[in-house]
Write a structure and sequence with these properties.
The chain is α+β, with helices and mostly antiparallel strands and 444 residues long. It contains 13 helices and 23 strands. Helix 5 packs across helix 9.
Length: 444
């Protein structure tokens, strides 16, 4: 849209001949523009500065000084300060030594710099200083990102990660670099140029200066089509995640998902389950594929995940157990109500409506309540002898559950697997004089 519109604000005279983007969605909002001092962010700031008032937009800016380019970084910071002072725009400055951060984290400079910037955006939003942070990513940036990630190998989710989320908006996402150039020229804007942007040894610069132009010459409109593809993929991805969210079942012992889900939904459900366990950025495609392989294996098989988590095949489900430390607790057995771990154990004389019955006089002195240990032996009701581990497996009790079930034991001999079975040694017979019961419940 072209028009003539000469105005004056804060002793600054400017003439705008084109609207760079639609400001209507930001009506009445407090918008903080991420300002690097480069052409794109200066143009975005000018667009909000020149037209934001008519939409009731309260404007501010932030800048992130990375400490990567030495004197050039300080020069850029000085330019940004001067520009915001000239246009009377409040500016918040964040500084960090990204190279030092990268050394400590083991990440590359580009990735560490991106993390630093998004930490700054989050700080502005969480502090209540602004409702939205606006970045100057444009259509060409988006296309470069899509092409870069396709060539490196990415998921549908990865293709659209430059989109809008968590209070971060991209007003220029459908604006080309050429349109920004024209806007900057028409408004006589000045900016600083990062000299490294011309160095095609960097992958991003090679895409920008060599690959994308060649692609546009070969297939006119390729840039816009890459962006449209990624945005369409983002819609599909959101829908699949909605299905995945409905498929994730959170229970007391862990997170469960059906093993029969179609892979596009199953894989996203796995990612959601891992995030519930605190695995937010550490998972890989290989983790998802390993979890998926459990679907073809028998119950009890497991896959190790980052941060000590695991996924277990249990029946028709894949379970992501909540992590608990192995219990070494041991308390003397007695009649009454006993708290043990996540359980309540009620033991008493006589009969009860439910629970396990046993001959109390057959129970040896000194029995303890504890969890399973290696080498435990159990004599199931009806005779015979088994390793406790084998008995629990035969009962289809998952290993992770069997490790926490309370036992009444003396040494390696197990007399009661609470909630499941008593030993043949303490069964009720015609000679029993003192009948008792043991009932297992969950602590509230």
């Amino acid at each position: 849209m072209f028009f003539s519109d000469c105005q004056s604000r804060a002793n600054v005279v400017y003439c705008s001949y084109m609207n760079l983007c639609d400001l209507q969605p930001y009506t009445g909002k407090r918008v903080c523009v991420a300002l690097s001092g480069g052409r794109d962010s200066v143009a975005l700031l000018h667009e909000f500065f020149s037209r934001g008032k008519q939409y009731g937009i309260v404007l501010s800016a932030l800048t992130c000084e990375h400490g990567i380019r030495g004197e050039q970084s300080l020069r850029d910071l000085g330019f940004v300060r001067d520009l915001c002072n000239k246009w009377d725009i409040p500016l918040r400055v964040f500084s960090a030594c990204v190279p030092e951060r990268a050394k400590k984290s083991g990440r590359g400079l580009e990735e560490e710099g991106r993390i630093f910037r998004y930490e700054c955006y989050a700080e502005v939003l969480s502090s209540g200083a602004a409702d939205l942070v606006a970045t100057a990513h444009h259509e060409d940036d988006f296309a470069e990102t899509v092409l870069f990630r396709l060539c490196r190998g990415t998921s549908l989710t990865g293709l659209a990660s430059i989109g809008e989320y968590d209070g971060i908006v991209r007003p220029l996402l459908h604006v080309t670099r050429a349109q920004i150039d024209r806007y900057a020229a028409e408004n006589g804007l000045s900016w600083v140029e990062d000299e490294s942007n011309a160095d095609t040894r960097y992958t991003r610069n090679a895409l920008r200066h060599d690959v994308i132009p060649a692609l546009e010459r070969a297939i006119p409109g390729a840039t816009a089509h890459l962006v449209a593809f990624a945005l369409s993929g983002a819609e599909d991805d959101r829908y699949l995640y909605t299905l995945a969210e409905n498929a994730v079942v959170k229970k007391e012992d862990g997170i469960r998902i059906s093993a029969s889900l179609p892979f596009p939904v199953f894989s996203r459900a796995c990612i959601l389950a891992m995030k519930e366990l605190g695995i937010v950025r550490d998972y890989t495609r290989a983790n998802v594929e390993e979890i998926s392989s459990l679907r073809a294996l028998q119950s009890g098989r497991r896959a190790s995940l980052p941060k000590g988590a695991e996924a277990v095949r249990e029946g028709d489900e894949i379970v992501f157990p909540f992590r608990r430390e192995e219990s070494t607790e041991e308390i003397p057995f007695r009649l009454g109500t006993l708290a043990f771990g996540d359980y309540l154990i009620e033991a008493g004389e006589g009969e009860s409506g439910d629970g396990l019955y046993l001959d109390l006089d057959s129970l040896p002195e000194g029995c303890q309540i504890r969890c399973r240990r290696e080498g435990d032996i159990f004599r199931p009701f009806g005779g015979g002898e088994k390793k406790l581990k084998k008995f629990l497996s035969d009962k289809k009790i998952p290993a992770r559950v069997g490790r926490s079930v309370p036992l009444v034991a003396l040494g390696k001999e197990i007399y009661v697997v609470c909630g499941t079975e008593i030993s043949d040694r303490v069964k009720v017979t015609d000679k029993t004089k003192r009948k008792g019961y043991i009932r297992l419940g969950k602590r509230r």
